[in-house]
């Protein structure tokens, strides 16, 4: 077929109802949607940030200013918006904090990129410049950091306090208490060379309604959300010898279909007696190990419960596998899969095992362990919303402190490090030359969104603040935004953040911006996508004008 024959004919290759956006329209729409998502969480940044109330289809309410939680609950529908949700998830899983910073920075990078696209600079050039800038920024971070280790308790507590500072529940005395508990917990479970390996899974965070956030406790052991199986069992055992069993104390059914024919009452009695004897033997094996506390991952038969109570053994059944692992690390006990293997060598030790009522529920406290490698933080609070936010604050603090220990360095926060990087990147842009230098400069300006947003959140003039900060950072300094006093201040001793959090935020934001910029064609298989100009987003989020 010649070219002349093709002219004027509509070539249909997509099914009916599908749609397609090409070139600048696709880029503009993706950038507008991503920026709209970033704008939604922008106002939550920093200690003076505002909270968001998220209401689900079922009417469940979440009140938070945690970036990852907001984006998870927001239920965005647009693919570009989902990419920003992904970086918040990655940031949360990798380092536990800095989710809002990562998303806001990604949104700002895309907004600046749109300005460059309007100047007819190709997307590939912008991506290339952003890559160079991100690489240089992570290198400059290394030059501006300070070493920290587990011995530096004061610095670690400050890092914990800063990471949870934006949460309204973690202020005043509550912040100091939670920070201290988090650092103690991490110090306790840290392992490996120089105690730099921290497995966050072994710090259990349990939440119960009642009292206030200041009544949160650190348990040097494990809190098991189960009750003692038999009323005749002791409710409190001191100097406990703990057995962990991963087998059912019940008469198991055969794997094959079996039928037992009983023709007389004597046979029935003998059958029941045999079952009881088997259960008694199981309990005998447990009692023979000299344990006085038993945690069973499977079920415990009523008859077995009776015999365990007669032996004076405190028992819990159907304990979660994750709790069994934590109990093993806290008490030093070994999880046994067959009762024949159970011996005194498999038992662990705890100073006290006790059942207590917390918020109307019975729970078993395994505490006062000698050197527990698993601990529990019991978070308290007046309402469910308060406890949930306190739990998120503790999770952020655990992530921040463990990141600081693993990387071994911290940087000055409050927008100080971002200003420092921006000034260095501007000088680097001149060295780069060519069109890429415009992208490097755009990256530098994007970093300034953090101090600008912090200034806005505490009522300062953002332009005056940036001008003053740029003057202060002409030579490297530690000046940042003091949001509590609404002024520019030296933040070296007050606001410190782990290097790993800043590095991850810059890398994640840069990568997602580069990926979105490279898209020049959006093919939607079904349904009409949002209009190209407005950048509207399914799910009720409007776009931004540029």
Walkthrough of the structure:
- This protein has 17 helices and 19 strands.
- The protein is α+β, with helices and mostly antiparallel strands.
- The protein folds into 2 domains: 13-146 and 412-524, GroEL-like equatorial domain (GROEL, domain 1, Orthogonal Bundle), CATH 1.10.560.10; 222-254 and 262-371, GroEL.
- Strands 7, 8, 9, 10, 11, 12 and 13 form a 7-stranded mixed β-sheet that branches. A 3-stranded antiparallel β-sheet has the order 4-15-18.
- A hairpin with a 4-residue loop joins strand 16 and strand 17.
- Helix 2 packs across helix 4 and helix 4 (79-94) packs antiparallel against helix 5 (99-118).
- The longest helix is centred in the middle third of the chain and has 24 residues, at 265-288.
- The protein is elongated, with a radius of gyration of 30 Å.
- The two termini are 44 Å apart.
- The relative contact order is 0.20.
- Residues 532-546 have low confidence and may be disordered.
Please summarize what this structure is.
With 546 residues, the protein is α+β, with helices and mostly antiparallel strands. It has helices spanning 3-6, 23-42, 67-74, 79-94, 99-118, 123-143, 153-163, 173-189, 265-288, 302-310, 321-331, 384-407, 416-432, 436-447, 449-457, 462-472, 499-517; strands at residues 19-22, 52-55, 61-64, 146-147, 203-209, 217-219, 222-224, 236-245, 293-296, 314-316, 335-336, 348-358, 361-367, 375-381, 409-412, 479-482, 487-490, 496-498, 521-524. The chain is elongated and about 95 Å long.
């Amino acid at each position: 077929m010649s070219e002349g024959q093709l002219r004027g004919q509509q070539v249909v290759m997509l099914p009916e109802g599908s749609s397609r956006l090409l070139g600048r329209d696709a880029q503009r729409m993706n950038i507008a949607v991503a920026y709209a998502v970033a704008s939604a969480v922008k106002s939550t940044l920093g200690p003076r940030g505002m909270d968001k109330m998220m209401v689900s289809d079922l009417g469940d309410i979440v009140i938070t200013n945690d970036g990852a939680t907001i984006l998870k609950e927001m239920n965005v529908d647009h693919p570009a918006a989902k990419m920003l949700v992904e970086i918040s998830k990655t940031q949360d899983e990798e380092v536990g904090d800095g989710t809002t910073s990562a998303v806001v920075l990604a949104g700002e990078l895309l907004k600046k990129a749109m300005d460059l696209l309007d100047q007819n600079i190709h997307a590939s050039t912008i991506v290339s410049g952003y890559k160079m800038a991100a690489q240089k920024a992570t290198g400059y971070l290394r030059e501006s950091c300070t070493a920290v280790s587990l011995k530096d308790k004061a610095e670690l507590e400050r890092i914990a306090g800063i990471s949870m500072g934006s949460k309204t529940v973690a202020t005043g005395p509550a912040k100091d208490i939670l920070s201290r508990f988090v650092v103690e917990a991490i110090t306790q479970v840290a392992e490996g060379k120089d105690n730099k390996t921290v497995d966050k899974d072994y710090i259990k965070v349990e939440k119960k309604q009642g009292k206030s956030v200041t009544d949160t406790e650190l348990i040097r052991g494990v809190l098991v959300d189960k009750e003692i199986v038999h009323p005749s069992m002791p409710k409190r055992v001191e100097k406990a010898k703990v057995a962990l069993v991963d087998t059912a104390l019940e008469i198991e059914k055969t794997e094959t279909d079996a039928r037992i024919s009983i023709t007389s009452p004597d046979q029935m009695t003998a059958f029941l007696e045999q079952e009881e004897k088997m259960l008694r033997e199981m309990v005998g094996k447990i009692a023979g190990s000299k344990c006085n506390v038993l945690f069973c991952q499977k079920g415990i038969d009523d008859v077995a419960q009776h015999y365990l109570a007669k032996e004076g053994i405190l028992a819990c059944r159907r304990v979660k596998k994750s709790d069994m692992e934590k109990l093993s690390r806290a008490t030093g006990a070994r999880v046994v899969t067959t009762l024949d293997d159970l011996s005194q060598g498999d038992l662990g030790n705890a100073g006290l095992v006790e059942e207590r009522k917390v918020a109307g529920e019975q729970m078993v406290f395994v505490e006062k362990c000698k050197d527990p490698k698993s601990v529990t933080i019991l978070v308290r609070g007046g309402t469910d919303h308060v406890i949930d936010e306190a739990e998120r604050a503790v999770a952020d603090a655990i992530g921040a402190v463990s990141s600081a220990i693993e990387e071994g360095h911290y940087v000055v926060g409050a927008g100080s490090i971002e200003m420092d990087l921006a000034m260095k990147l501007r000088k680097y842009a001149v060295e780069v030359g060519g069109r890429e230098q415009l992208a490097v400069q755009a990256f530098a300006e994007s970093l300034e969104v953090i101090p600008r947003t912090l200034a806005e959140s505490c009522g300062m003039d953002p332009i005056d603040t940036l001008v003053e900060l740029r003057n202060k950072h002409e030579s490297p300094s530690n000046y940042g935004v003091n949001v509590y006093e609404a002024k520019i201040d030296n933040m070296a001793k007050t606001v410190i953040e782990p290097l790993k959090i800043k590095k991850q935020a810059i890398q994640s934001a840069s990568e997602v911006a580069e990926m979105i910029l490279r898209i020049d064609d959006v093919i939607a298989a079904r349904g009409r996508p949002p209009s190209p100009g407005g950048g509207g987003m399914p799910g009720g989020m409007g776009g931004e004008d540029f």
